Amino acid sequence: MSYEHILFEVSEGIATITLNRPDRLNAWTGRMAHEVRAGMEAADRDPDVKVIILTGAGRGFCSGADMNDLSNISAAGGVESRPFEPFDPNAKPDYQHPQTWFASVSKPIIAAINGPCAGMGLCISLFCDLRFVSETAVFVTAFARRGLIAEHGTSWMLPRIVGHSRALDLLLSSRRVHPDEAYRIGLADRVFAPEALIDGARTYARELAEAVSPRSMAVIKRQLWNGLVQDLKDAMVDADREMALSLKSDDFKEGVASFVEKRQVKFTGV
Predict the structure, then answer these.
(1) 85: Cβ–Cβ under 8 A, 6 or more apart, which residues?
(2) pTM across the whole model
(3) What SS3 state is found at 132?
């Protein structure tokens, strides 16, 4: 597929998807949404890809929905609701909606947030698995200052990351959150100097790609996201089942053998 609003690259077991409208601070469009979905599908299908990095070109991550798109929606009196095709039909129903489908991608997604992350950009980042942040980044919810509400699952996901009252503060005030505060409240998992962000994200991703079982990563990611929408009993049943399957897997045998033989592990994901 040819891309207009993103860049897509695979190297060293890492797929990098770059939102590529730098002149608009990578404002989100319908075309961009389609291309990000296509890039994620390509990465998820590729056995050589172990980790996905999502970042932005230029000085921004994503400044939110493109205002031209919003103006068109406003002039039309709203937007027509259309059925959404699940990324993974076997995923929990909660993760079969726009933006929430990131949770059903089987490989870890690292958001490398290089600059402003506002509105829709914040929604997207919340449903990534990890958020690595440049010292020049800034988070803004923006919704309330546009006459909007917490959209696309933000009201559900943000409290689970930063806590209920902090989420209310960020959503009601629409104030700017800088990297030091983002790290302190758990919105950011790592903070890097601007020039070190992508290298830092890639170093972490390479460690996962080279030393961790792809099968284990996929199962653990699914366990944690499913755990947000299930009770402890069901989580325990799932864990017992998955452990039994893991003990029969080639990756388990390789993990033990490489440890005993004191050699580099060679996982196959099976």
Answers:
(1) none
(2) 0.92
(3) strand
